[in-house]
Protein: 2-phytyl-1,4-beta-naphthoquinone methyltransferase, chloroplastic
Organism: Vitis rotundifolia
Amino acid sequence: MASLHFLLRPSSNPNPLALPSRSRPVRCANERQALFSRIAPVYDNLNDFLSLGQHRIWKRMAVSWSRAKRGDDVLDLCCGSGDLAFLLSERVGSDGKVIGFDFSREQLLVASSRQHLLLKACYKNIEWIEGDATKLPFSDCSFDAITMGYGLRNVLDRCKAMQEMFRVLKPGSRVSILDFNKSSKPFITSIQGWMIDNVVVPVATGYGLADEYAYLKSSVQEFLTGKELEKLALETGFSDAKHYEIGGGIMGNLVAKR
Ligand SMILES: C/C(=C\Cc1cc(O)c2ccccc2c1O)CCC[C@H](C)CCC[C@H](C)CCCC(C)C
Ligand SMILES: C[S@@+](CC[C@H](N)C(=O)[O-])C[C@H]1O[C@@H](n2cnc3c(N)ncnc32)[C@H](O)[C@@H]1O
């Protein structure tokens, strides 16, 4: 029986029906948690549709850059519905162990149900844990690799999340962080903004999730550029950090070595 381990705690969102207004930025962790729980039922299908399946390629690249290998203990932070955790699971095999970690129980429930539906033997090596990326419940130097897909931009205290990743990684191991690229090229920024305004938000509106997807644009604007991400990693203590632009510059991936 595959492992399902949620740290049980009451929902921290007192009123999940109180949607944030598009004019008001999503500022507190509870609001973000509620946002990701609301989009959980459609998240996977919308990613496939909106990226024309490209996000699967970007996620494979992120997992490959983590250098996770057979038998490793690995962590997928902000795992959501589990795409990167499933890819990691195939790489580390049944001798390895994958932890998918997220603060949205609804996302973890989707991940866990996919784990049971996909029926691959190696997926038994995945455990889902509910918690906050800025307070990881793991000992120092526990993991051989960490991945994080579309997570860091959404975490309120990015410095703390980076410090926690550094703490739980074994020396010599890598973290691979995939996200939208906050480009310094105005052309890329305009294309990205145009896609969100004219494709992503109109499609999401059809599911009653306009505000949730409009948040995407402001979150990319408030994110760090590739150079700033490299600087953050080095300041956190990582010995090496390199940011790669992918998907024509729309996406980026930071690889940092402890
Ligand atoms: C992978 C996608 C979205 C992930 C995602 C991340 C978030 O932080 C969210 C926050 C709140 C709500 C939703 C999300 C969320 O879904 C989909 C990305 C779609 C893009 C707009 C990219 C479209 C790309 C092109 C179709 C492909 C072009 C590639 C080519 C090589 C130039
Ligand atoms: C856009 S989704 C990405 C999901 C998945 N990694 C993927 O690539 O499809 C962002 C995820 O980060 C999680 N998240 C955001 N802030 C978090 C935090 N502080 N602690 C734990 N999870 C967080 C959300 O619940 C959500 O599932």
About this structure: Residues 39, 47, 50-52, 54-55, 150, 153-154, 195-196, 200, 212-213, 215-216, 247-248, 250 surround LLAZDA3J (ligand 1) (CB under 6 Å). The longest helix spans residues 29-50. Strands lie at 3-4, 73-77, 97-102, 126-130, 143-149, 169-180, 240-246, 251-257.
